[in-house]
Write a structure and sequence with these properties.
The protein is of the alpha+beta class. It folds into 2 domains: 135 residues, Fructose-1,6-Bisphosphatase, Chain A, domain 1 (2-Layer Sandwich); 115 residues, 3-Layer(aba) Sandwich (D-Maltodextrin-Binding Protein, domain 2). 34% of the residues lie in helices and 28% in strands. The protein has 7 helices and 14 strands. The strands form 3 sheets. The protein has a 7-stranded mixed β-sheet, with helices on both faces. The chain has a 5-stranded mixed β-sheet with strand order 11-10-12-14-13, sandwiched between helices. β7 and β8 form a beta hairpin.
């Protein structure tokens, strides 16, 4: 995968990962964004480190980031970065978080990296060249029945209609489709990677920001899976619902989640 943007994405993710690893080891000062939505000095400093690497090579590219960069999503060259996905896990000393860096050209993802710095796991993908975990090519699972898989789920910070809709969809999956179980790990970037690795048959969340799925969606697609919003429409580069699957299970998952999609979301 000889793509210059991938090399920059990897270098940027490594720089961000070094920051969050240091804070994870040494301690953090947390500031509330909102209920159950924390921001730390680690987020801010890690985004600065990620952006510095990108700017060195591509000073005129747009950057869309969680903390302080609101780049033009219609730009020809756009980087979408999440310096610390899984901040709540991070704050509670749970080592399930990642740095995510994706490069989009004319609105289409071209390459992406999801880096788990504690495990030193590298999830990388380049459009048309496959998905790789630590250099080894990966593929989604081949299960044809929801009754044979685990399903991942995420809850956005909303404690009202979106939470209720998510719980209702989970209830349907458990009662009517007899899935093996529900898993909620708290880091959407890594949840998407778990679909690509065949560990989850599907994953859904009714509201995510683009930096949460920009790199992970390409990783799923390049592993042979399918990613849409929860209505079955293409993902926008904007806040959206997300459904990822091994592809085989996508339509039946849409049948489950679509009726519960919260009105007005």
């Amino acid at each position: 995968m000889d793509k210059p943007e991938l090399s920059v994405a990897e270098e940027a993710a490594r720089a961000g990962g070094a920051v969050v690893s240091r804070y994870f080891r040494d301690g953090i000062a947390m500031r509330d964004k909102a209920v159950a939505n924390l921001v730390s000095d680690a987020d801010v400093e890690a985004e600065r480190a990620v952006v510095e690497v990108i700017r060195r090579t591509y000073p005129h590219h747009e950057i869309l980031g969680e903390e302080s960069h609101q780049g033009d999503t219609g730009a020809e060259h756009l980087w979408v970065v999440d310096p610390l996905d899984g901040t709540n896990n991070f704050a509670h000393k749970i080592p399930q978080f990642a740095v995510s860096v994706a490069y989009y050209h004319k609105g289409v993802p071209q390459c992406g990296v999801v880096y788990h710095p504690i495990r030193d796991d590298w999830h990388t993908a380049v459009r048309g060249h496959g998905a790789y975990l630590n250099g080894e090519r990966v593929r989604v699972g081949t299960e044809t029945r929801l009754g044979d898989v685990l399903v991942g789920v995420g809850f956005y910070y909303d404690r009202g209609a979106i939470m209720d809709a998510t719980l209702a969809a989970v209830g349907d999956l458990k009662r009517h489709h007899h899935i093996h179980g529900i898993r909620r790990f708290g880091a959407a970037t890594l949840d998407l990677c778990m679909v690509a690795l065949g560990q989850l048959g599907a994953y859904f969340e009714f509201e995510l920001s683009p930096w949460d799925f920009a790199a992970g969606r390409l990783f799923v697609e390049e592993a042979g899976g399918r990613v849409t919003d929860c209505r079955g429409e293409p993902l926008p580069l904007a806040k959206s619902s997300v459904l990822a699957s091994n592809g085989i299970l996508h339509d039946v998952m849409l049948d489950v989640v679509r009726p519960h999609f919260p009105a007005g979301a």
